[in-house]
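Example 3.2
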Amino acid sequence: MNNDQIRQGGFAGLQALQAPNDGWKMLLYKEVLRFWRVGFQTIAAPVLTAVLYLMIFGHVLSDRVQVYPGVSYVAFLVPGLVMMSMLQNAFANSASSLVQSKIMGNLVFILMTPMHAWHWFIAYVGAALVRGLLVGLGVYLVTLFYAPAQAASITWILAFAVLGSGLMGALGLLAGLWADKFDQMAVFQNFIVMPMTFLAGVFYSIHSLPPFWQFLSHLNPFFYMIDGFRFGFFGVSDVSPWLSLGIAGVAMLLVSLLCLYLLRTGYKLRT
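Structure, written as tokens:
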């Protein structure tokens, strides 16, 4: 758009010129506001669910299981439940938002804007990241009533919290692009996210598993995110945190590149 066009269009022309750079901010704000308005459902409910897991498993197994020396089973559960809550809610946020927009037909208004693929990516994944971190913080604060606060390395905790929520936000965006209705999105949730989460060592150390299931767990990127996150609390883990960081980072990169490619091609967006 040249200067003559801007003068003819006035303020609207100036807005159109700025939209490619600023549109993602408005979309990000819209996505954050979407889940914040129903915070009891999107933030408080997952926190309550995680606390119920902690109370039930902690009550049943606290006297029977000790995974790491000097670490109670209830304390061992806390990082796993925090990360599990972040992963599931980050995925649900971006996936449900995109599918809901498809069903209600308001996705066309976003398609009419001159935003690039990476604008979409930053907005949807960024909102999922915010929700994941808020839920994780809520779960952690409530669990302080059941286990004392521990933090061997804040850096590792923050690194895996951001990386895990970002990865699941991108995976949720991928699911939202593929799914045309909530039933299809549930396939991702029930057959991919949920099994991989429970096989990732949330409630146990994978060293207690039979060799075959240990092998499968080592193929699961969720395991590395949870194990690395737990290292930040206790300073011990099942595998090296650097290995966990590398695998989670590669998974994030691959899923992000796939999402950007599908967004650029308009996969299931312009049909």
